[in-house]
Amino acid sequence: MGTKQLALVVGGTGIAGRALCRELAEQGRRVVSLSRSAPAAPAAPPAGVETVRADLTDPESVAAALAGLAPTHIFFTAWSRRPTEAENIAVNSAMVRHVLDATGRSGRLRHVALVTGIKHYLGPFEAYAAGTTRETPFRENEPRLPVPNFYYAQEDELWEAAERHRFTWSVHRSHTIIGHAVGNAMNMGMTLAVQAALSRTEGRPFVFPGNEVQWNGITDMTDAGLLARQMIWAATTDGLPSQAYNTANGDVFRWRWMWPRIAELLKADPEGYAERPRPLEHQMSGRADAWRALAARENLAEPDLTRVASWWHTDADLNRPVECFTDLTRGRAAGFTGHVDTLSSFAALFDTLRRERVIPA
């Protein structure tokens, strides 16, 4: 992207979006962050990033927010969780459609990069890893599962708009993302940091919430900065075909190895899998007042527990009944060779959370 080009980050206050805004701004590019609300620090976009607000489910709101802007590159990272997959499909596909309808007519749009995830291979939350799933490592050329999935609906909207408006596209299927965004619905790193802080405060062990399959099986994760770099690479490298890329750090691990090391980083007493899963939604039930008291005592930035921990999402990830990791050959063969050590990614996140007073020192 040159100086006359404009990058629009849809969902710029989320985990992937904030990392994209930061990476693009550091590269000297003009960046606009589009989100529903304007968050306060420390969740605000980096310095130099312009912000606009819109309700992505409302086409008129999106059109008004983007009036006068003609992005050349769009990075779509937003999603909205709904009670059923039918509602997820209707709402999340419409969000993609509204943005591309508002921007595609300018004729300046060159590339759209869309973040999805490995639910492409596992199925949606309400049928998570039930029935047919793909064999690990997951590969991009495997056919879709025969179940409704909002990721598929988003891809369909992207492909249709690309044909109509003549832009290239990429889809980035991340695993669980390690990154920083207060108020995000899918945030394992921050959730584990909050679990550890509360466990330390109450003199309890830091208990692995997942099942035996995840404790012993191979898995991988995705650093938000790595995801941002891959998306920018796909959007700006000439000659790449429009296609999907798995996005993961490049290393694999087992939670039985990772859990005690995360506990050490968080100064907590680890306790691994023992006989049965112990979900966080049960472990941490009724802890809102305890977190509020801890936040007041330690002068933390966010006293609302629901904005710093997503128990349900971490429980879902760590209780999958199948092993989950991805094949990265396609991206590497095309020239993206980025790699991040997952333990180092967790360590960097925890340092950031302490520095920004999201968790205690």
Care to describe what's here?
The chain has helices at 15-26, 59-66, 85-104, 119-122, 150-165, 188-201, 212-216, 224-236, 255-265, 280-283, 288-298, 311-318, 329-334, 342-355, and strands at residues 6-10, 30-35, 50-53, 73-76, 111-117, 168-174, 177-178, 206-207, 218-219, 222-223, 243-247, 253-254, 270-271. Helix 1 crosses helix 8 (224-236). It has 361 residues and is of the alpha/beta class. The longest helix is centred in the N-terminal third of the chain and has 20 residues, at 85-104. Helix 3 (85-104) links the parallel strand 4 and strand 5 (111-117). The chain has 14 helices and 13 strands. A 7-stranded parallel sheet has the order 3-2-1-4-5-6-11, sandwiched between helices. It starts with 5 loop residues before the first strand and ends in a 6-residue tail after the last helix. Helices cover 40% and strands 14% of the residues.
